[in-house]
Amino acid sequence: MESRRVTIRAVLTWALVAGAAASVWREDDVxxxxxxxxxxxxxxxxxxxxxxxxxxxxxxxxxxAMSVLFPAIGSDPLVCKTSEDDIYKTGLxxxxxxxxxxGGEGYGSCGGGLGTCCVFSQSCTGTTNxxxxxxxxxxxxxxxxxVGECKLTVNPRHNNICQYRLDFDSFNIAQPDPSSDCxxxxxxxxxxxHAPKLCGDLxxxxxxxxxxxxGGPIILTMDTSKTxxxxxxxxxKVTQIDCNSPYRAPAGCLQFFNETSGMVKSMNFKGIxxxxxxxxxxxxxxxxxxxxxxxxxxxxxxxxxxxxxxESSSNVLLSREEFIELKNKHILExxxxxxxxxxxxxxxxxxxxxxxxxxxxxxxxxxxxGVCINAKVGYCDLTWTQSKAHGAYSFTMSGDGSVPASExxxxxxxxxxxxxxxxxxxxxxxxxxxDAPIHAVRxxxxxxxxxxxxxxxxxxxxxxxxxxxxxxxxxxFAINFRQNLC
Length: 486
What we know:
By secondary structure, the protein is of the alpha+beta class.
């Protein structure tokens, strides 16, 4: 009992000293510090002044500690970093007792050890009204069929919520079908502004959902096919945004980047360099047995994929003759298996669930959304460039994306880009042949030029239609943006 009293007394003393110092420095010298960046003595930086608690504990620790010890009524808890960022990157800094009381789970300490970094996660049929929560795939740990409809209901935590941000910390479900439609597995959002039907690999992507203040909940729906065996996973962080928050995205922006440079990827994009300049490679679709990241060449078939998986599991380098012999043997075994009337229904379903190379990692059809870049003060224009980090095939939106890299070409203009394209208002690029500037809004094809624009607000509009008849192996795009100083 005595040790507990000593601990409580020490905590209160620390809080009072830190709070007093913080209030003294903030009230008396905040104007000076903001304008000159120095502490009360007038010589040292504010953060290095012994009069400031930030000198002893660090700004984030002090702020977190004060929010835990003296939470303001109606204020938001501060975001903290978890101790296990491979599972959850961030949480909310809360008192130890409050975290489990509200249904959360602690992942490390925060606020100088006075609080816990609390994470709120929900799975199928869950409900939440927390400022930050996670929609996770707790039911999937191995290769298995889907479960059908899985929903999370997100209620606004008060009547001044205007927006929700969804961060796909991890997201891997079934790929689109050959027509680029999400038919087997898909994800959607209802109850707020329109959100497209999505599927495939969205890890690292984000979207914004607008909502009416004082309105009802939004519902996140993950529908996975019960007839498709594969390993799925998702972890979607849902953040509620106040109507007067500086983090609110502008209207009409499904995605929003508040930075001077970065990369924008189309939904379900993951391109890599092709081998031997023979055409674009794709990451193989997860099969019923294991996930393989071995790139497959154009023209590969289901038999090639199985052979590839067999090789990757043995980790043995084969000569060309040995490879052909093994491949022929594997094809023969597969043929005999498929003709055997005693094959179980589970094996038949397993064979159906495998996808050929042609169907792996393609752009999603029927999209129509804006990607907005916040224009910064002192920057006068914006440059868009094709991502070199993702190889020559990092822009294949229309046409034949299976040609050698030397045959890739840009298309632009309303006449040429009518199906799948990106739009940039005020866009200007230099023609490679004539070295003359060309003004264009729409860009498509299998190559993206360097495009500059001064037209604000900065918006990259993405359009894909439902007709993929004349398109082959379109991955989508990965393009960089850079704001330029005046």
